[in-house]
Amino acid sequence: MSLAENNPGRDASASRRALSGVLREPLVHFLAIGAVLLGAYSLFERAPQEEASPKEIVLSVDSMAQLLMIFESQWKRQPTQDEFNAMIEDRIRQDILYREALALGLDKEDTIVKRRMAQKMQFLAEDVAAQQEPTSDELRAWFAGHTDLFTVPARISFRHLYFSPDKRGGSARDDAGKALAGLDGAPQNAALTGSLGDHFMFQDYYGDRASQAIAGEFGVEFADAVATLQPGSWQGPVKSGYGWHLVFVDNKTAARVPAFEEVEQEVKTAWLGTQKAEAWRKAYEEMRAKYTVIMPVPAEADEAGAPEGTVAQTPGQAAGAPL
Amino acid sequence: MPEAAPLILKNPDDPADVAKVFSYLVSLVSKPPIKAFMSPEVAGSIWKQNVKIADENNKPGTFTAFCSYEYTSQFNFRNLHRNVYFRDCAKVADQPFSSMDSWHPEDLWKWMDTQREAGNELLAISHNANLSDGWMYPSDMDSLGRPIDAAWAASRDRNERLVEIKQIKGQSETHPLLSPNDEFANYEIASFLIGLPEDSGRVPAIVGSYARQALKDGVTMQDTRGYNPYKFGFVAGADSHNSGAPYRQNNFYGGHGINDGSIETRMAGHIFTGSDVRWESPAGLSVAWAEENTRASIWDAMYRKETYATSGTRIKLRFFGGWDYKDGMLADQDWVKAAYAGGTTMGADLPAVSGEARAPSFVLWAVKDPTSANLDRIQIVKGWSKNGQSFEKIYDVAWAGDREPDWTGEVPPIESTVDIENATYADTVGAAELKTVWTDPDFDASQHAFYYARVLEIPTPRWSAIQAKLLGMAPPDVVPATQQERAWSSPIWYTPTAEARQAAAPGLTVADLTANGATALSEDELKTLIVGKSIWVTNTVTGEPIKIRYDQGGTAVVLHVGTGSLQPSLSGDLPQRSYQTTAANYEIKDGKIVTYVSSTPISMAVYKSEASQGGQTLHDQATYYGARSNEFGYANYELLLKPPANLVALEKSDMIPNDEQAKYLNVPVKVSE
Q1: Mutate to test the interface with B, among A11, A16, A17, A22 (most CBs of B within 10 A)
Q2: Is A102 in the same domain as A172?
Q3: Chain A residues lying within 8 Å of B314, measured CB to CB
Q4: How many domains does chain A have?
Q5: Which of B138, B370, B372 sits opposite A240 (nearest CB)?
Q6: Most buried residue among A148, B426, B446, B523 by CB atoms closer than 10 A?
Q7: pLDDT in tens, B124-149
């Protein structure tokens, strides 16, 4: 098939329509993270030019050097003359369209623009919070209060005999039960597996596995059941996603809290995460406190002397308000 | 940097300090720019943050987090998205190449090449091809309007190692119109253009949007032009915008925030960005056969395409191809080692055959997800190319229960245990494990081919039926109430040796025809030949004849096409159209007969020849040859001026005498129990 039907060079207005379509498209906005700040800095750069004259586009040596720098960081080489010219033209086009859009007031009451600006504020607030380096003592103290986040899970070693519904149909469970009777008091001898059970598609012995790993292999039901078995004898039948099993637990290792030194790096990462969230929460609270929000209320609730049809939320009232 | 000093928050607990930093930040917007903030180091800080998060959460052996990003090219609403994965986070670029830099994937590949040359290994995965409006897998022209050539193919092959075959917005394996003989193709179809205004009349293209067709075009391009841009492996994705991936039918919470985040928005069929939420599907999963759970090991497996995809359940699948696999080898405890040693695995080429010419055999093994349904069957999807045409055939190779293939060779559907009212199913049918060694019964050593495995679970309720039950309403009728989860292996390719290729009789090309003095019919000649007439057309590659009636008003019907007939790519569902005598539009344009596969035009030029062209049928007058626009320069059709008297050659050579005809009547067909 042919892709020539829409030659982009031939139809610049179509390109612009499509571009504006893309910019309106909400999915795109989740993705263009890198472009966010890039856009922000080109905003900064535009300010002095606009002061000079609304119909003048001034490109300074610095701003051109900036274009070069961006190109080099992506391509690890200098642009060709053609590439450079195209970059300059792109920048000019962007400036012109941006100014024309502002002149038409296209930035006003635009949900996407609002959302983007709000998002930038949050990014900046979180960034500055991340600057603070914790001391080792601070981390140690925090770790002591949050050991549940770092617990090393319990581990189990077990062997099993498999009774396959593919081979035995509905009698797999009964067959397992009968085999168990014959195993009463038998040791965990691996040689038994061949004669009593069916060939299992993965392993016959699982050493030192956490419950999550067992669940990944056999399903949650089986992992939970094995966790309750006492070591030292054949037990079952236990159901898995594949059929029925007899299980011999060799040993169990209890869950434990690691020493701080084992997990210091993870503790630091987690600590920074909470600092970031906390800094953002506080910064927002500060800003929120400066505002009064006026909301409409249902007519019957309009008896407390608020202006008709609205209720004012002072900073004090805002706490816990269902916004 | 000193310029940033006022930005450093000394004490986040001190409101005065926070306020000071904030007012400084706000003041920046109205002042001249601070040059120090404009370096790529700062502008790329979000990307750096991304890399940092990946590094912090990467736990070799336990949890691998890649440095990666999405190249979100969406020119004119066509989804040309690619996911780019870096092998080593320590080497990533300061700034990734985004669709803001260029919407042309060719420019992305160019950038990727420079990264690779600088020692920064990376690969791209095409994503949501089904929403690309036919632009993900072109065969003639690239996105810059240039003819596709060997350099383009090599660039794509170097950079785009994998394609995403399923995600929340549907599957990109194939479409029923492209694969009319695949009874499992009618699965999680989503065909719309993201963000297309609701009042737009645009119809998205099906042709060029699906992986199986691209694989078929790929081997055909290899055969006719000497390069294959579409030698990719399969993975799957979520494309969730919620930072969580809903990959199970019984836990489907949507992927687009408030647009599908509540059961009410989902079941009300909320419309947004051109989509009906009910079309959505749980996320797919990707599996890489890697030596260990580390970035380098998994990335290398992705690069060599030793991957498979699932529709969301954790089906396990192995797939090997070779020349000497023994039927009983799967009984051996160490069969995986033997399979690696004796051939090649998913994503690779069959090794060269040594010794006597023979058909390749394949080792297949699948195990169910222990938390999902039993398995129904394993299939092999084979695609191959001959004389510019490509074909596909699906073989059932291992299946649960005691079903026997029916007279068409297909294994009948497995019993459905789904109770739609209660949205439940039972594992009383199906198997926990399926395995076999299969040898291609139709192998032709002269033809380029690919093979991939597809595993199907037994039917289970679709998420929309489960949530309908929760709301006490009927399942939505715009999507199926049940579905079969599945897994797709990356393909294994077969390339004929030069000797094997040359052993096959060469096909007839347009170049051959014109060199022999044939001329293309003018528009008037073409009209005289077909309009208001019926003609027989034989596909000389398959030997299948078809009758076409072209009426005066621009509609045509095809007749006499059987469900078991072999049809080349982009024929549409001819057996159904033929049996039901459903007309479709045709037009004569630029001296060609134009018909449509969905919205995509396919044209046929007709040549008149006085000379013998070595065709397969007998002629007693001037011969007409047809060349379809999607068959890479071959003229594979003969227009017969004399219809065949009978379409079936009976094996019995003797006529049955009239007085014995009664023997063939009044036959009891109901067998008493």
Answers
A1: A22
A2: no
A3: 216
A4: 2
A5: B370
A6: B446
A7: 999 999 999 999 999 999 999 999 99
